[in-house]
Amino acid sequence: MFGVRTQISSQAVYGETGRFPLHVRQQFRMINYWIKLEELPANNILKKCLNEQKDMHTSGNNAWVGKIIHMLNEHYPQRDHLRLVNNELESIAKTFKSKIYEKCQETMLAEINDSTLQPKLRTYKLIKTDYRLEPYLLLNLSRKMYYKIARFRVSSHNLRIEIGRHENPILPAVERLCLKCNMHVIEDEKHCLIVCPHNTLSREDLFKIANDHIENFEQLNKEDKFKTIMKSKEPELLKSLGKFLVNIDA
Which residues touch 4 (CB under 8 Å, ≥6 apart)? Predict the structure, then answer.
């Protein structure tokens, strides 16, 4: 969907879409089904099966309902989940999803910011500070522009900082210099977007629009200019970013 390399971190792809791993949705379905069973009348065969499951669990045997209780205990400790009444079930149904989402968001953002675990996300962690669907994905852009923005954000692009790791032997990061200018610096995302003289004409429109939407943009340092553009939710600025990346073929 993004046109990124298969080696890219799953956390980055989840982060761009604001989605969660399958196991999170599995937990929701299990809890919803359990509540549905609990609300059935006592003479219903499925309700009887649930009660058998509870007896098995109480006796120390492995049972499906034990997995439900384990999940609930993580968020509702010190409660007897085998003897809940309907109004308690309704309360759990309303809050369980938000608790799971909150915990998962914290975990995903922590993994994105862990440079030891995710060294390739060195730039992404600077611009991904909240867990949501990124606004550029909701714009009516061309597929090529979607690809370019996504690839640039998650470091799956054609800049030397990335392609140097695929050379044989692997080129050390400090030697992945920009070949488009004579500044003798590493060609990374910030250099490409903000600094490189080779891209001056291509970024004129981008900087003009950034000045319109970002307060005191011209007074910001290079890193802050980079972060404010990449974090922007302004449709006009995001479209201009896409055009810039297409023009320079990053």
Answer: 13, 150, 151, 154, 156
